[in-house]
Amino acid sequence: MQVGNHLYERAADVPSVVPVFPLSGALLLPRVQLPLNIFEPRYVAMVDAALRTDRVIGMVQPRFDTSEESDENPDLCEVGCLGRLTAFQESGDGRYLITLSGIARFRIEEEMETATPYRMCRIAIDPFASDLVAESGDGEVDRDAVLKAFQDYLTAHDLEADWSSVREASNEALVNTLATMSPFGPAEKQALLEASDLKARAETLVALTEIELARGGGDDVPTFN
Known about the structure:
Oligomer: single chain
Radius of gyration: 18 Å
Helix content: 25-40%
Order of helices and strands: EEEEHEEEEHHHHH
Distance between the termini: 26 Å
Number of strands: 8
Shape: globular
């Protein structure tokens, strides 16, 4: 799988120790792009370091199932997604505007002791090796069910989408992009991330959308505009 200028074909092609960026509600998935505004000094330093090395950053959510709170170093979910830094722009006021392109999901094995201002973790992607194969499981997705849920959500909120882009998208691109841009909370986003395969993610996305519609909630919606 080609991501930016690098080829990722097996687990050995990704670093085993990576900087991690904890961000609640952010979902990165393989072959989906995630734009980020980096302004906190320690994460600006993280981007600087990534640009000097392998350009890989691990996106992970802080734990949301614990009452313990730590603004500086929150407990982390066990599963995140690696992204390659494929675009960046300096804002002129100390910020970076970057784009991460999803490589593969990972499981955190341990957090490393480090002198860096950002956190580093030893990770394994072996449980998610199929993520390195583009469109793996595409044929098992119920595309009609995904499209119906998407259309129902748009109709309920009087919104529109670029249907030409939707029709041209592979099942993987459709499901992963909608999951990434969905208006769900951290727990739901983590469920989408940890779905065992593309078929399970599509089914989870449909179920969550149907629940959201039944509740009559949600102000935002995934679009292809």
